[in-house]
Amino acid sequence: MSTPAQIAARAARTRRRLLLAAAAFLVVLALVVGWLLGRAGTAQTPTASSSPQASPAPSATADTFVPLAGENLALGQYQVNYPRTPEGAVSAAIAAVQALSTNDAQALADALIVYHGLENEQIPPEDLEEEIEGFLKVRAHGIDWDRPEGTTFDREAFPAPASYFYITPIGVWWEETDSTTVRVQILATEEISDGMGLVFKRRYIHGCLMRWEPSVRSGDWVIEEARDPSRQDFYAPKEEDYTLDNPNWTPISFPEWDDSE
Fold first, then answer.
1. Are 5 and 52 within 8 A, CB to CB?
2. What contacts 78, CB < 8 A, 6 or more positions away?
3. pLDDT digit string, tens, across residues 29-77
4. What pLDDT was estimated at residue 228?
5. Which key words tag this protein in UniProt (predicted)?
6. Are strands 181-193 and 164-178 parallel, antiparallel or unpaired?
7. Strands, E, within 194-247: which ranges?
8. CA 210, CA 20: separation in Å to the nearest integer?
9. Distance between CA atoms of 43 and 95, rounded to whole angstroms?
10. Span 1-5, mean pLDDT?
11. CA-atom Rg of the chain in angstroms
């Protein structure tokens, strides 16, 4: 039975969508990475090809993972200021994934800025707008690739006003790579509609490297690197990798204050 780390490794070896994945990653995060490097030139730089290899993962023995609450809200709605613990990093990663449950350009921009720790950076509005347009184009490509056979999808019309994109994290795996970085992979159920008749669900694995950044919000976890195994692969995974029956996933149980379930 494949572990999340093996999923990522298998995805990295897959050539059919390697160029697509690389292009998508550069388009979506070029601005974010540039600002991060400019702000923290001395920060640790992870190896892009690295993938979690710990055995067992710290989360493997827990029955469920209950996300922690952030101590504060950024922009009035995004939970931030998580504890400086692996569990805090995982909770921040889950919150960042949940924040992408929208096709609204401004909301996506806000989420990316908050969870990459860029609130205090002077990002030109036109640059940010261009990056979000790129993000939505990549999302549209993924929808077109993953939609059920026999359905139609107009990339140019996406996102239509009635479209929606709901992400529900259901399982998590993580590895503490050192005292300031935690690699996280999140299994999610995603419900997607183009607002023009196409509606479907898929399972998707989000991946990111979380880094503790003392200069952000007086100390908080930020996304250092985003790499989704599901998008690196050509989305023909082993079914066992995308189900909670795989013991390497720890089920997520949201607390009562969170209505994400």
1. yes
2. 95, 99, 110, 111, 114, 115
3. 433 334 333 433 333 333 333 333 333 344 444 589 999 999 999 999 9
4. 82
5. Plasmid
6. antiparallel
7. 199-213, 220-226
8. 24
9. 23
10. 54
11. 17
Short-list 167, 150, 174, CA closest to 203: 167
Q: Where are the chain's structural domains? A: 4-41+51-251
Quick one: average pLDDT of 220-239? 78
Rounded CA separation 182/235 (Å): 25
Whether the Cβ atoms of residue 115 and residue 99 lie closer than 8 Å to each other: yes
Q: Can you name the residues that pair with 204 across neighbouring β-strands?
A: 188
Evaluate if residue 20 carries a pLDDT over 60. no
Task: Tell me if residue 118 falls in helix, strand or coil.
Answer: coil
Whole-prediction pTM: 0.77
Helix 18-39 to helix 125-146 angle, to the nearest 10 degrees?
Answer: 150
Find tokens 């720890």 and name the residue.
Answer: 250
CA atoms within 13 A on the CB side of 131: 23
At 92, list the tokens.
């921040």
Q: Cα-flanking dihedrals φ and ψ of residue 161, to 5°?
A: -55, -35
Residue of higher predicted confidence among 79 and 21: 79
